[in-house]
């Protein structure tokens, strides 16, 4: 059976009336990892997961935004601490690569926040879902190594060859979005990265181009990603489905 898991989606950013259709339309969809961006986002993902058992919430603070006050951060960490048993992972957390291209930012407070999440993830015994691309990924690898973190998932990863080698050696996982169907650089990355450490995601509701132009991003797009991965890896489509499903199930300790 062609079973899929969307390893990274922002269900809280979809209209509530569309949740049921997104979750139930594709019978091959076994689970969705719904990541959070703020405290309100965490609380909304909690609500969605209580409505749909296949939705596994991750709690965190998306780095591509201005930082909250120290009081707001304290409130966020206190809430996650109280609700950590039900979350599947800490995420989405990382560094503000794209924001720093637009604004002059001090990276230090973002690093401090990320390190706090890393430390707490160890305390909570949860894996990390990371937003860390290009040169930011090197910095994040430094922090992960400093704290001896092995369960790290770099979503929609893009970076230099030396970073890719470092991540492979450390056993970090990456996930690819539907842009693998039409972007040669992502195809090259997926070809190079071990199949044992690959997952698939949508990052929905983020929109895509190519064959997905002007379409609402939904988990069923993953099927085309799996077919492309099978082609790139030289394995059967069935094998690709099995590998990607088992990788995600094992990484997140899912009993789907």
TrEMBL record:
It comes from Priestia megaterium (Bacillus megaterium). CDD domains: TatD_DNAse (cd01310). Keywords: Hydrolase, Metal-binding. Belongs to the metallo-dependent hydrolases superfamily. TatD-type hydrolase family. The keyword Hydrolase applies. It comes from the Bacteria. The keyword Hydrolase applies. SUPFAM superfamilies: Metallo-dependent hydrolases. GO terms for molecular function: hydrolase activity, acting on ester bonds; metal ion binding. This is TatD family deoxyribonuclease. A divalent metal cation 2 binds at residues 131, 155. Pfam families: TatD_DNase (PF01026). PROSITE patterns: TATD_1 (PS01137). A divalent metal cation 1 binds at residues 8, 10, 92, 203.
């Amino acid at each position: 059976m062609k079973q899929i898991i969307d390893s990274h989606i922002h269900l809280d950013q979809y209209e509530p009336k569309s949740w049921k259709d997104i979750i139930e339309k594709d019978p091959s969809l076994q689970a969705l990892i719904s990541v959070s961006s703020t405290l309100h986002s965490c609380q909304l993902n909690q609500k969605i997961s209580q409505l749909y058992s296949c939705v596994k919430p991750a709690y965190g603070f998306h780095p591509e935004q201005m930082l909250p006050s120290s009081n707001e951060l304290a409130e966020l960490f206190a809430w996650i601490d109280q609700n950590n048993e039900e979350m599947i992972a800490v995420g989405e957390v990382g560094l503000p690569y794209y924001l720093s291209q637009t604004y002059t930012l001090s990276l230090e407070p973002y690093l401090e926040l990320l390190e706090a999440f890393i430390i707490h993830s160890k305390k909570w015994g949860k894996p990390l879902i990371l937003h860390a691309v290009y040169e930011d990924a090197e910095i994040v690898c430094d922090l992960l190594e400093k704290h001896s973190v092995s369960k790290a998932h770099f979503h929609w990863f893009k970076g230099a060859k030396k970073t890719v080698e470092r991540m492979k050696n450390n056993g970090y996982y990456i996930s690819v979005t539907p842009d693998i169907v039409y972007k040669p650089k992502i195809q090259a990355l997926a070809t190079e990265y071990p199949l044992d450490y690959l997952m698939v995601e949508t990052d929905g509701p983020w929109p895509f181009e190519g064959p997905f132009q002007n379409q609402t991003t939904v988990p069923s797009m993953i099927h085309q990603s799996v077919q492309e991965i099978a082609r790139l890896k030289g394995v059967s489509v069935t094998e690709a489905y099995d590998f990607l499903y088992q990788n995600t199930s094992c990484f997140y300790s899912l009993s789907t």
